[in-house]
Specification:
Elements: H1 3-17, H2 24-50, H3 57-79, H4 81-87, H5 98-104, H6 112-142, E1 144-147, E2 155-158, H7 174-230
Antiparallel strand pairs: 1-2
């Protein structure tokens, strides 16, 4: 993960991961919203640029993602009333977040397919980060697993007794959420750097092997030419 990516994750975590209730079902709803917002925002922004509406492409993109957020909330009201009532205005935070605006209005000179692929890759990576964050808070903070339920009510499965998770109940609080997000981000950054070092080492090693092979081939060619001249 690059330094800019790390800063983006920190800003996004403070903006809408920490304020959201620490249940997996709310994280799942947030992730679905993020994926659609990024896809719609990127497409509208690129299409506005293509049809030469560059002066108002920012306004059009913001209108598009805000309109989808309103539609998304109404869908939740009709299908998952408890979730919609609990989240309320929190559903609009991702719309104006630095994560969304930073990627939607970035690399505008690239083709739509390339921009969409790049932006969705970043969103999927952050979505996995968010789902792990909410899953840990739900299981260890509350001792439950929650998901979309029937009859407008959240499905809740009790995994641990409240007496057995008293040590980890701190994760259900906002300070606990801050510490958890920082810990997961630290692990993600560390693992990513390790893989980058390994991939670079493999690239350097393969490059050295190719150079040695080329030198051997050149040496063999020179020997052949010398032998031919001697004859």
């Amino acid at each position: 993960m690059t330094k800019q990516g790390t800063y983006t994750y920190i800003a996004a975590s403070l903006a809408f991961l920490v304020p959201f209730p620490g249940r997996f079902v709310y994280g799942f709803v947030l992730v679905i919203e993020l994926l659609f917002l990024m896809m719609i925002g990127t497409c509208v922004n690129s299409l506005a640029e293509k049809i030469r509406l560059g002066e108002i492409k920012t306004v059009l993109s913001l209108i598009a993602i805000t309109s989808f957020t309103i539609l998304y909330k109404h869908i939740l009201i009709l299908t998952q009333t408890e979730i919609a009532m609990t989240l309320g205005f929190l559903l609009f935070i991702p719309t104006a977040s630095s994560f969304m605006i930073g990627y939607v209005f970035n690399n505008t000179d690239l083709p739509l397919s390339q921009r969409l692929k790049e932006n969705m890759r970043h969103t999927v990576n952050f979505s996995l980060f968010a789902l792990i964050f909410f899953l840990i808070r739900d299981i260890f903070g509350y001792g439950t697993f929650t998901f979309l339920g029937k009859n407008h009510v959240i499905y809740e499965k009790v995994i641990f007794d409240s007496e057995n998770i008293s040590v980890f109940s701190f994760l259900a609080s906002i300070p606990g959420a801050l510490i958890l997000s920082a810990f997961i981000l630290f692990l993600d950054t560390t693992v990513t750097k390790k893989f980058e070092i390994i991939s670079k080492a493999k690239a350097v090693h393969s490059g050295q092997i190719n150079n040695e092979s080329t030198e051997k081939e050149n040496g063999s060619t020179n020997e052949t030419v010398t032998t031919g001249d001697g004859k």
